[in-house]
Amino acid sequence: MRSAVAAVALCGLIASGCQTPAATPVGSPVLRGLRFAPILPDAADRAAADLVVAALVSNREAADRALECIEAIDAQREAENADATGLAPLAADLHNAAFLPERAYLDAAQVLLDRNDLPRAARGRLRQTAQDDPLALANARMRDARLKSGARLFNALSEPIGRSVLTTALAPYHLGQSLVAYAIEWYREDALPLQRRQALAHWKEFLARYPEAPESRDIAARVKTAEKRWHRTLARDALEEARDALAKQRPREALHHAEVALRHRPDDTDAEKIRGRASREVALQRDRLATSLHFAAEPRAALLSDEARALSLALLAPGGDVAGAARALPPESPLSAAARFALASARGEAGEDAEMWQEMRALARDADEVMARHARSAVQDVTRNPYDAFRRAQRRDRLSTAVWVLLGPAAARPRFSVDGVAEWLLRLPGRVQSIALLPVRVAQLARRRPPATARITALHAARYLSMHGGGARSAAVRDWLEDYERARENWLGALRVAASRADAEPDELEALRERAARQAFEVAAHEQRRDLRNAMLHNVAREFADTRAGRDAGLRAREEIENLKPHHIRISRGFLEENPDVAGPEGLGIEPQLLDDDPSNGELHPDGVALIGGRELEFSFLAVSGDEDDAPERRTTTLSDAHLARLVARLEEASFRNALVDRDDPIVPDAERDLVFERARLGLTEQIDTRATAEADYTYRGVRERYGMVRGREAILPFDIVVQGSLADFSLGAFPRMRTPRETPDAFLYR
């Protein structure tokens, strides 16, 4: 008996551990031939229709009668213990919207929000309307500004006190350091910070919409005060830009910013000084330009000599003997410096780039003013002399790396202003302490990626190789550029450089080709636009045909062409489960067993259903294994025009309703999706736009799919408990940190 019971239990355990095989439904997964019987209107429906008509024609008396009728019907149903119609709050909102002024409508909306019978979607819409009031938005932004200022001060006091649990003797030092940092931050803050700028814009909008409102006089005074601070902020920003431009030797730009600062604050003496200095430097630049454009003719005899004529012909004629003509000039000729310049240029064209630039540098030092200027310009031009630019950039990168290894954060230089120097001195103890971490930085150096400035060095190196690929320095430059591309894992660039080497090993090139092909294939596969993705895949397949990634790219390109879908608007299974009206008969109308979590009678895959163009729908079912991780089995079906229009209407209605009742389920704008839906509503699905730029790619996902079983919520209290410690100074402590308000989505418009 015991063995039989054990056998039954073992069989049950084995059966429970096995995956239930899934079955693909036979026939169409969509309910066909659905008919919807008309619903006969009752007294409440007729009263609602009368209210709508009265609101449209602005008949106040008829609207009052209809609203009273709806409220009487609900009162009667409540007396009979029957369910209310649910029309009363919606009818009251329609009545308010049609016959009340805007400010009075907002007050009436607040009254409706206090009712318990208001539907969730209508409550969300009214709450959003109340929050969009300019005065409410301005008050909210001012509250955020005050909270942010208070949070900064609170954190400046709580953090140093809480960190000094083990080192109480250092508490005064930490507190003083934090307060000085707070003072510097307060000094740098704009006269009109971000949140107050937003409040100013909302106040102006309120005055424009409600000039006769009782609050307008007080708000106008606030606007006047805030605009003064706003002009002070603009003047301060323009003055900072002017100082930076002047420090970077851009006097024209500095002059412009100084004039902008004076436009906002005409009595600013600093801006006046910068404008005067920038004006003088601009005038000096103009004088220098006029001098450089002046041409002083050489003596006529020198210009018409046989040697000068021979040099001119050699320079103009293809393949002319420039070197011979230049050497034929006598040393005392006024054209000797020009001849040296021409001779140096000829040596560069002959491939002797090192000798050419050596002569150019000598000419820049020794020649007369005119030819020295030409030679100096050629030497300093990074496009004509890329090797010198490469060497300068390489020395700069090595110096910055060495400074980082030796000093770390202590290498940061202060801004030359009162607050900049004060901040640098404030952080000096920590920076000096970071010098002790030299061994750590030395260990990190081997795995450190090239600095961002190395891109400029690589640009000069690539330009040099394109101009002087066979030059004397090309081997060293090519080695550096290949090492740089390998260090940043740009295998395409490394292959391009390695392939240009004459001594490249075939095995090394083959390995680089495999890596480069795989990199190009991954980049192409992640491209969003279909036409660009296909073109990139074809290029990879053609250029790297002898590699595995090239073959994969070709197969992927052929697969995309064979399975081309004009659109892909996916409705996931989670969304259908959370929105049964979309999946039900009045929407998609799928068979109920497809969502009953029983794979044996057919079950939708988590991918759900997709609109793929025209009236075509693609259903994704669980694979035969019943495992959701396996590739789904896909089947297409065609809907009627009326069925597709009904589905689109239900889908949009559900998404708008969800956005109103749940802030974690917002409506994401998508122009291509909206165009597909509009064509479906109008019955224009047969005219399919196959252009890649018109492709709609969108996914409706359930909230649980996005956030899991439990969604994160902000804490009620505006504090976070922070535990912080450091082995460097043996500090340990816990302190509350006050959270600052989040920026609104439109905050970037006010920066």
Account of the 3D structure:
The structure is a single chain. This protein folds into 6 domains: 43-131; 136-188 and 708-751, no CATH class; 190-293, no CATH class; 304-380; 389-560, no CATH class; 565-689, no CATH class. The chain contains 33 helices and 7 strands. It starts with a helix and ends in a 13-residue tail after the last strand. α10 (216-247) packs across α12 (269-293), α14 runs antiparallel to α15 (322-328) and α25 (491-499) runs antiparallel to α26. The chain is of the alpha+beta class.
Oligomer class: single chain
Query: How large, in whole angstroms, is the Cα Rg?
Result: 38 Å
In what range is the share of β-strand residues? 5-15%
Distance between the termini: 81 Å
Mean pLDDT metric: 80
Please tell me the total number of domains.
6
Low-confidence stretches: 1-18
Structural class: alpha+beta
Note the main sheet: 5 strands, mixed
**Global morphology:** extended
Number of extended strands:
7
Please tally the helical runs, counting DSSP H or I stretches of 4 or more residues.
33
- Helix % is 55-70%
| Major β-sheet strand ordering | 4-3-2-1-5
